[in-house]
Design a protein that fits this description.
The chain is mainly beta. The protein has 2 domains: about 10-135, Jelly Rolls; about 145-235, Jelly Rolls (Sandwich). It contains no helices and 22 strands. It has strands at about 1-5, 10-15, 20-25, 40-50, 55-60, 65-70, 75-80, 85, 90-95, 100-105, 115-120, 130-135, 145-150, 160, 165-170, 175-180, 185-195, 195-200, 200-205, 210-215, 215-220, 225-235. Strands 1-20-17-22-15-13-14 form a 7-stranded mixed beta sheet, with no helix packed on it. Strands 2-3-4-11-6-9-12 form a 7-stranded antiparallel beta sheet, with no helix packed on it. The two termini are about 20 Å apart.
Length: about 240
């Protein structure tokens, strides 16, 4: 088993006033040649957008873009005509493919919105752009990981053009769970949303990340109440 640990305080940071953003991997003005990606996981941004502010219309292409709101409501508009609001408990995916424009705005007048913006390098270029979102409230399970993203259109959660699987889980103190990887050659990036967890004797706290590869499975134990995101992705571009 191979591992890499990224403590929360070592992430890149940019405070633009309206946007306070932490970058696990190199992004925009933050460049670290040792932290360009984890396999095909290219971007993991932890964003906080002030009320009434947001990202104006901007382009993307040939990228799978996933948004996971943690607090507040985020309004999305795009060049395909989609207008929607995503909030805590939702997962949004956008396949940029041949090219798309979109904007994201905090629609709350007096509350910040916090969300994860995640980019995955796709296994196909030039696909037709598409948009989807789901609510996870009906698939959440107590003290278990539940799948929110996969490569399969007919599987649980949203789907992407890549052999990737995302799972979320909330765990009570001292709960231990084993995760078995879905595909040989994949790795898993563990990201702690809340609480503290132990992964193979490594203690991870809020917003810490840990990449794991060259293994078929691993154990995770919540040292207190914990909320965790697992991102299983191919390790080779």
């Amino acid at each position: 088993m191979n591992t890499v640990i990224h403590k929360a305080e070592t992430r890149g940071h940019a405070n633009h006033g309206w946007l306070n953003s932490y970058h696990t991997f190199s992004f925009s003005g933050y460049h670290n040649p040792e932290r360009m990606n984890f396999g095909v996981l290219r971007v993991l941004n932890d964003d906080q957008v002030h009320s009434g502010s947001g990202f104006g219309k901007h382009p993307h292409e040939n990228m799978e873009i996933i948004s996971i709101p943690l607090e507040g409501d985020l309004e999305h508009q795009d060049s395909m005509g989609n207008i929607s609001v995503i909030k805590e408990g939702d997962v949004q995916v956008m396949s940029a493919g041949t090219g798309i424009y979109h904007s994201e705005r905090n629609r709350n007048p007096n509350k910040d919105v916090k969300f994860l913006q995640i980019w995955i390098i796709p296994n196909q270029k030039g696909v037709e752009p598409r948009y989807d979102q789901i609510s996870t409230k009906e698939i959440q399970k107590e003290n278990q990981f539940y799948q929110v993203l996969s490569p399969n259109k007919d599987d649980q959660g949203v789907w992407v053009h890549q052999d990737a699987w995302f799972s979320l889980g909330k765990f009570t103190k001292e709960t231990t769970i084993e995760y078995t990887l879905k595909k040989e050659g994949n790795g898993v990036y563990v990201f702690v949303l809340e609480g503290n967890i132990d992964v193979n004797s490594e203690l991870l706290s809020k917003r810490d990340g840990m990449g794991i590869w060259n293994t078929k499975n691993f154990n995770l134990t919540a040292k207190e109440g914990a909320n965790v995101l697992l991102m299983e992705v191919p390790m080779f571009l």
